[in-house]
Amino acid sequence: MADVPVIDFQVYGLDGATDIVPTDGDLKKVAVEMYDALTNVGCLYIKNHGIASDLMKRLEASALQFFSLPLEEKLKVKGNAISQGYVPIGVERGSSTEPDVKECYMYFPANLAPWPEIKYFKESFIEVFQNFTILQHRILEVLALSLNLEREFFKKHHRTLDKKSATCIRAAFYPKMPDDFKKTNGQVRCAEHIDYGALTFIHQDNVGGLQVKTKSCKWIDLKSKDGALVVLLGDLMQRWTSDKFYAPPHRVLKLPDETDGFIGANRSRLSLIYFGSPDADTLVQGIEGSKYEPIIASHHYERRTERASREGYKGTYQELLKTQ
Ligand SMILES: O=C(O)CCC(=O)C(=O)O
Ligand SMILES: [Fe+2]
């Protein structure tokens, strides 16, 4: 069975500052590891990623405080999958006909919407976003080197902090369900899907339930691992790399009547997710030949969000393209 590797990023230094600038040669080892992970399973854990655990704890605490508010309070800052704010249970449905059992708060950096009045909420989202963006840049450099491209090849199209893109953070809260809660057929915490952009980072608590589907269609658990982040490839990056890298389907179980023994049945779960995408005006042209038509990043994103809200889908990027 394919394994999900843990990759150490210490070569860049730990504080998110730019004082360590490794040479291409310094990055060789980590580039080989990334290449193997993204060609085989499309995901990995990253440790020594430079994002302070105190900062993540602060964001977790303020997000939990927000989700514990009465629904009518949360609805005062309502948003949706493409604009900042609260997304209640029942809206997102992945591939399932039944809605996911999750509620979210979405943060987009170009936000003008009002913030909830919770201590550190706004500041933490902004600071975490900046830190994740530094990490995104570092990983994109390594990915380019791993494909024998110039180091800035992907990074230069991810300005993120000063150009429009779909990049955002989602705090996802999966509430504890009542003991007698019976899910309807196919309903899970987050239904099988692939992400739309370049790279996704997931910081999760220790409740469990996140799973990734391998190329041979086996589900494997992505358990929480000592502060390591989960990194998943998005389908736009699969397209950009002419299918060299693989965007893996993933999902979050579990509801109380699932019987596979994976932990978390009667506990709520919180995850903080960074969805990294290229700048909206990027022309994404496959690195090898003409397998795919070039596409503007914002058009890809619009197509994918439209499809997700209309009917969802499951499976790989190729399967999606067949039914589009
Ligand atoms: O909550 C998680 O761990 C993952 C959720 C997810 O895959 C998503 O929101 O796209
Ligand atoms: Fe996802």
Q: Which structural traits does this protein have?
A:
globular; 8-stranded mixed β-sheet; binds 2-oxoglutaric acid; DIOX_N; alpha+beta; 324 residues; Jelly Rolls; 14 strands; 26% helix; IPNS-like_sf; binds fe (ii) ion; 4-stranded antiparallel β-sheet
Give structural notes.
- With 324 residues, the chain is α+β, with helices and mostly antiparallel strands.
- It has one domain: B-lactam Antibiotic, Isopenicillin N Synthase, Chain (Jelly Rolls).
- Helices cover 26% and strands 19% of the residues.
- The strands form 3 sheets. Strands 1-2-10-7-12-5-4-3 form an 8-stranded mixed β-sheet.
- Helix 1 (28-40) crosses helix 4 and helix 2 crosses helix 4 (121-146).
- It is globular and about 55 Å long.
- 41% of the residues are buried.
- The structure holds 2-oxoglutaric acid (AKG) and fe (ii) ion.
- The site of fe (ii) ion has 4 residues, from loops.
> Could you report the average pLDDT, rounded to the nearest whole number?
90
Which bin fits the share of residues in helices?
25-40%
- What is the rounded distance between the termini? 31 Å
Give the neighbour order of strands across the main sheet. Answer: 1-2-10-7-12-5-4-3
Principal-axis shape equals: globular
Write down the CATH class: Mainly Beta
Q: Based on the coordinates given, report the CATH architecture.
A: Sandwich
Number of domains: 1
Q: What share of residues are in beta strands?
A: 15-25%
Work out the radius of gyration: 19 Å
